[in-house]
Write a structure and sequence with these properties.
heterodimer, A: 219 residues, alpha+beta, Phosphorylase Kinase, domain 1, Transferase(Phosphotransferase), domain 1, 5-stranded antiparallel sheet, two-stranded antiparallel sheet, B: 355 residues, Nucleotidyltransferase, domain 5, 5-stranded mixed sheet, nucleotide-binding (chain A), kinase (chain A), serine/threonine-protein kinase (chain A), protein serine/threonine kinase activity (chain A), EC 2.7.11.1 (chain A)
């Protein structure tokens, strides 16, 4: 089933851990096709549940983002048979690519970290938890605003804990990807702390970090 | 490289951070001397690796005080056994390596006390070793995996680790309980024996399971959350024991938790572009986990490395192995710094024997 709808015009952009991402067109518009594949190592029932669940959840969360004005690609089509999600193609480098390519532009960097903080605040304000925040899941636009992508692990939740863990996942991605991550991530948090609700999330983030440090026990 | 004075290091390793007490002796041979800047790749000869495990009765976990008492009672005979197997006298040793942490306080202290005493008695340098780094270095030495993504799974740890810039960096880990702790706790709910280990008995039950019961599945980025699954499955076992067999519960628990671990390991491989996985730690003995990991690796053209019970379960030689590498680089722990610590993160160690 995976290969039946092979579009000869589509071009493989990248192969991730659980999906192949192609550039293609939908009704004449530049689009990205994200095709999830099944994993032989997991139980077939669990595999079906995860593949379907993540396909649907990604489409749902992207729509929810756009309803609330959070920058995310428009959903163009969901093809359940081939587990493929078609979304609008967003032009621009990922935040990771941008940071690696422009390491000396501190002002530009600060602007983008603030943009990331604002985007995450906006997303959390509408109870969307991304679930897999990394600097590879943010696309830098010409206007220095960020578009969030890859919502396969997302959920809808108003819980302070879920939002704090969302930020913690991003912090760990920063640490494992970028030197000088502390300064960069501090810029994200500063822009995130826009209201009392956000400050409550940041206080909880401190707890989540502490748990991480205390957890390391006997072997 | 080459042309240096040949050098041999014989290291004694003492490990007792949890309920296993291990004594190991390893010999590292540098035929061309210790290279000053290249990665250390000595010829590794295992001279002894003996172990004694403290098992509480079924349905009970182990208490630090009882474990420490076990280690105190067992360490002298075990040490003599290791020296006898190696055919060595104390004067043949070059250093005494011991586990500085992480682990349970009282057992760590009991073993460190012996290490300190031996070092002064035999006039040998002490080398404090991070337990997790011991697992990684032993796994690399045994399997020949060069630069793998490491899944470290045990009673107290669940981490996905990648090496970068002389540090073993933690890419992903559990947000709450460790995998081995979850399996042990569930074994206690089912009153499975603690001998040879609760996890081993879960694995045997799981082999006879046939029905997959849906359990929560929580992956966040490269981290996992395991506590919720345990609570869920405990409730099933306690409130509806007639609806599910223990075999099916063990099977479903393993299938779900291991799938999560394999998923985050694969994400780390994709993230750093690695094709190798090394599984270390006590839960790494689980053949179903090894099989699932191998399947994932094969699907992406990679390879999985795992060790057997001698090395994946806590042991003394892994402490000797990591300690001897640090010692070759000139590292030693002064007596006044020879304390132990319950918290000692993998990424706090400066791995100066690699480049």
């Amino acid at each position: 089933m995976a290969d039946q709808d092979q579009d000869p015009g589509r071009e493989l952009l990248r192969q991730g851990a659980e999906a192949r991402v192609y550039k293609t067109t939908v009704d004449g518009r530049a689009a990205v096709a994200k095709q999830r594949f099944s994993k032989g190592y997991r139980h077939p029932e669990l595999d079906r549940k995860l593949t379907r669940g993540r396909l649907n959840q990604e489409a749902r969360s992207l729509r929810r983002c756009r309803e609330h004005g959070v920058r995310a690609p428009e959903v163009l089509r969901v093809d359940k048979d081939s587990a493929t999600l078609y979304v609008e193609f967003v032009e621009g480098p990922t935040l990771k690519e941008w940071i690696v390519a422009t390491s000396s532009d501190e002002a530009g960097e600060a602007r983008l970290m603030a943009a990331a903080g604002r985007a995450l605040h906006h997303m959390h304000q509408h109870n969307i938890i991304h679930g897999d925040l990394t600097t590879s899941n943010m696309i830098v636009g010409r206007d220095s605003e960020l578009t969030l992508i890859d919502f396969g692990l997302s959920q809808v939740s108003g819980s302070v804990e879920d939002k704090a863990v969302d930020l913690y996942v991003l912090e760990r991605a920063f640490i494992s990807t970028h030197p000088d991550s502390e300064r960069l991530f501090a810029g994200v948090l500063e822009a995130y702390a826009r209201d009392d609700a956000a400050r409550a999330v940041l206080r909880r983030l401190e707890d989540v970090r502490q748990r991480g440090r205390k957890r390391d026990m006997s072997g | 490289m080459g042309g240096g004075e040949p050098r041999t290091i014989i290291a004694l390793g003492l490990e007792g951070s949890a309920n296993k007490l291990g004594v190991g002796i390893v010999k590292h041979v540098y035929a061309d001397g210790v290279p000053p800047s290249a990665e250390l790749r000595p010829e590794v000869v295992e001279l002894a690796n003996v172990r004694d495990t403290y098992n509480p009765p079924p349905g009970e976990g182990f208490l630090p005080r009882d474990v420490a008492a076990h280690h105190r009672e067992t360490i002298m005979p075990l040490l003599k056994q290791a020296l006898a197997e190696a055919g060595l006298a104390p004067r043949d040793l070059d250093c005494i390596c011991y586990t500085k942490g992480p682990g349970m306080g009282a057992p760590l202290q009991a073993v460190a006390l012996v290490a300190r005493t031996l070092a002064q008695l035999w006039d040998l340098p002490l080398v404090g070793v991070n337990h997790c780094v011991g697992h990684i270095e032993m796994g690399r030495a045994i399997t020949g995996a060069d630069n793998p993504i490491v899944l470290y799974v045990s009673g107290g740890n669940t981490q996905v680790i990648a090496y970068s810039q002389q540090t073993y960096r933690i890419f992903g880990e559990t947000l709450d309980s460790a995998i081995g702790n979850c399996l042990d706790r569930f074994a206690r709910v089912l009153k499975l024996p603690n001998d040879p280990s609760p996890g081993y008995n879960i694995e045997q039950y799981a082999k006879r399971g046939t029905k997959y019961i849906e359990l929560p599945y929580t992956v966040k980025g490269m981290d996992v959350s395991l506590g919720g699954i345990l609570t869920f499955v405990e409730r099933l076992a306690k409130t509806e024991p007639e609806k599910h067999t223990p075999e099916d519960l063990c099977y479903s628990l393993q299938e779900t938790m291991f799938a999560m671990l394999v998923e985050i390991t694969e994400r780390a491989m994709a993230h750093v572009g690695s094709q190798e996985v090394l599984i270390v730690g006590g839960v790494g003995c689980n053949l179903r986990l090894q099989e699932m990991m191998a399947q994932m690796a094969a699907e992406r053209g990679g390879k999985v490395f795992a060790t057997d019970m001698r090395y994946c379960i806590d042991n003394g030689i892994m402490i000797a192995q990591a300690g001897a590498l640090a010692f070759a680089r000139g590292f030693a722990t002064p007596i006044e710094d020879s304390w132990v610590t319950q918290r000692f993160r993998t990424d706090q160690v400066h791995v100066d024997w690699r480049t």
